[in-house]
Specification:
Layout lengths: L5 E8 L2 E8 L3 H21 L5 H21 L5 H17 L1
Antiparallel strand pairs: 1-2
């Protein structure tokens, strides 16, 4: 099989099934992503007044995008860890 083959994966979002082509090896991450979308859409639907499916999807997409933006704004490594790594590097350098 070539690396660019896809497999069909069925996901359920708001009680509706969707068949999606998924690159091999990414099945699990697709399922996690679909669950995230379903959870967000369910939360929006529960919190709103009789919203259309389109509006629920847009609001959920905005919530997910906002989470992504917040994640990108956070430094990947806590500053205290960086300071400890720097201190360890200085110790190693002084020993060598």
């Amino acid at each position: 099989m070539s690396d660019n083959q896809t497999i069909p994966v069925t996901v359920k979002i708001l009680d509706k099934e969707y068949k999606i082509s998924c690159p091999q090896g990414e099945h699990e991450s697709l399922l996690v992503s679909a669950k995230n979308v379903n959870d967000n859409m369910s939360k929006v639907r529960e919190g709103g007044k009789a919203l259309s499916a389109d509006r629920v999807a847009v609001m959920a997409a905005i919530n997910i995008a906002h989470e992504l933006v917040k994640t990108k704004e956070k430094p990947n490594i806590d500053e205290s860890i960086i300071n400890r790594i720097d201190a360890m590097q200085l110790s190693i350098d002084s020993i060598l």
